UniProtKB/TrEMBL annotation:
Origin: domain of life: Bacteria
Gene Ontology MF, one: DNA binding
Protein name: GntR family transcriptional regulator
Keywords: DNA-binding, Transcription, Transcription regulation
Domain HTH gntR-type: 12-80
Membrane-crossing segments per the record: none
InterPro entries per record: Tscrpt_reg_HTH_GntR, WH-like_DNA-bd_sf, WH_DNA-bd_sf
Amino acid sequence: MNLVTIDAAGSEPPYEQVRRQIAQGAASGALPAGHKLPTVRQLATDLGLAANTVAKAYRALETDGVIETHGRGGTLIASRRLTDPEAEAGAQTYARLARTQGLSLDEAIRLVEQSWTP
C-alpha cells in the first residue's frame, strides 16, 4: 500500500493531496497513532515532488494535530485519543470524584490500572 498517491492531472494541489491522504489515513486508523512517516525528503523523492511541497503538507498536518515532529526521532501520526473530548470529559469527571473521595493521584491511577483489564 502506498502512503500517498499523487494525481498530477487533478485540480487539487499536490501538497493538499499529501495532507488530505495522510489526514484521512490517520482518521480511519489505516495510519495508527505512532506510525512513523517518511522524512520530507524521502516522501518527496518517492512522489516526485519538491521537498518544499511535502514540507508544506507536513506543517499543515502538524498545525491540525494530525502528526507530531520529534526532530531526529522522526514524524509520527499523533495520538488523537489524548484530545478526544469524550475521553477528556470522562477523565475530568473521574479526577473530580477521586479528589472528592480523598484519593491521591497514585491511588486514583492504581484504580484505573486495576480496572483496565477486562
